[in-house]
Amino acid sequence: MTSSDWVFVLALIASVVLTAESVRQLRRRWVLVKIEGASMEPALHDGDEVLAKRTRRIGTGDIVVVAAPDPQLGWAELKRAKSPWWVKRITAGPGEPMPGSGEPVPPGHYFLLSDNPAGEDSRRHGPCPGNLIVGSVIRTF
Question: Quick one: CA dihedral 49, 41, 127, 83, positive or negative?
Fold first, then answer.
């Protein structure tokens, strides 16, 4: 092999490594989720896709992507990496009164509701631990 062949091979390897690292960095900051079901209607419909930015800056009224709770155990014993994603609206943050009961949301938790009253949310599973919230929705497709 000539020296120009080696340069081409090294450039090809470098471009593959840089592309893989770029994809990894994008996935650390952003998550794309497809809406399944009618729980967020009328704001979001079945089949819509949302782009969420991974952040801890969230507040009441934000639509967020969160790891779905276990159907029997709720938020307890949840393995975030193996859980499907939910898209819900934050209706109360830490210390704010929970809708329906008026009790304060525990520290580090958020009360999540579906826009559609028929959807599953914190009314069934209780307040969601903040560490299970992946990020805030910034765009709908």
Answer: negative
